[in-house]
Amino acid sequence: MPNFQTWVSAHQQQFEEVLGLLLPAANIAPQTLHAAMRYSVLDGGKRVRPLLAFAAGELAGAQMHRVSLVAAAVECIHAYSLVHDDMPCMDDDVLRRGKPTCHVEYDEATALLVGDALQSLAFQLLSEPNLVADPLRQLKMLRLLAVSSGSRGMAGGQAFDLANVGKQINVSELEFMHIHKTGALIRAAVLLGAYCGDELSDEQLEKLDHYAKCVGLAFQVVDDVLDAEADTATLGKTAGKDADNDKPTYVTLLGVQEAKKMAAELHQDALQSLADFGDEAQRLRELADFIVQRKF
């Protein structure tokens, strides 16, 4: 088995090639929209959600070409959310993944359409014929991504976030927000990857879902710490933006040290969820380590 960094690099490189093939070419009309879609998705990001899908797929013995499609669908949803979040009507940011945000590089109308088109592409990819052998399972996968992306998932979490700028909320309310805004799509990535392989028991799926819930929350806690401690060049996005916008974060509510302690506890909880799995869950364990210990 290759070491973790070799595995990550290989999957990131292969996945970048897959995305390049699945996204519409920039020379196909409407050229500007397609160029902006590629600009927003390619050449950037850690690809944490696709990596989680690949790791869960390995656990379930899935064929990687199938996992590539669901990973691409999840990444399209994630990229669309970033494009829209950065727009002036939302977080109004000018830097993402170390380069100008989509609405800055192009314009607001194009950025809006990029998000719309990427969301549609995600479901197109997930509805590809023969993605999985059982059509009912594929319908379940489509519903999972839809719920995770919508008002009871990512979009709902963003709405809760915007509604609470400048307000005092408690840790439970902040956790509710991030279970939806960040966590829902991370949980979808893990389960969709697993659904591409052999059928797992309900108990196994519940443990995978709990693992994903823990790493999803840990991801956001660490994000808040990095936003408070790292600089813009390291993050590839505007550092301190949440504090400047008077947004509640784990750091503002708990302080840096308690937030780090919370991330460590979530890390251990995630690993404990995988205790009954064998070596086939090793990449999921390593990804939990990476999410909590990352520096950018």
Per CATH, the superfamily is Farnesyl Diphosphate Synthase
- Summed up, the domain count is 1
Which strand order does the major sheet show?
Answer: 1-2
Determine the structural class based on helices, strands and strand pairing: mainly alpha
Major sheet details: 2 strands, antiparallel
Mean pLDDT: 94
Judging from the principal axes of the Cα atoms, what is the shape?
A: globular
Question: Helix fraction?
Answer: over 70%
Which CATH architecture? Orthogonal Bundle
Give me the count of strands: 2
Question: How far from one another are the termini?
Answer: 26 Å
Rg on CA atoms, Å? 18 Å
Q: Which blocks of ≥5 consecutive residues have pLDDT under 50?
A: none
Query: What's the order of the H and E elements?
Result: HHHHEEHHHHHHHHHHH
Q: What is the number of helical segments per DSSP (H or I, 4+ residues)?
A: 15
Query: CATH top level?
Result: Mainly Alpha
Percent in strands: under 5%
What is the CATH topology classification name?
A: Farnesyl Diphosphate Synthase
Q: What can you tell me about this protein's structure?
A:
It is a single chain. With 296 residues, the chain is an all-alpha fold. The chain has a single domain (7-293), classed as Farnesyl Diphosphate Synthase. The protein is 70% helix and 1% strand. It contains 15 helices and two strands. The protein has helices at 4-22, 31-41, 48-59, 64-85, 102-105, 108-126, 135-149, 154-163, 171-195, 202-229, 232-235, 241-244, 250-254, 256-273, 282-293; strands spanning 95-96, 99-100. It has a two-stranded antiparallel sheet with strand order 1-2. Strand 1 and strand 2 form a beta hairpin.
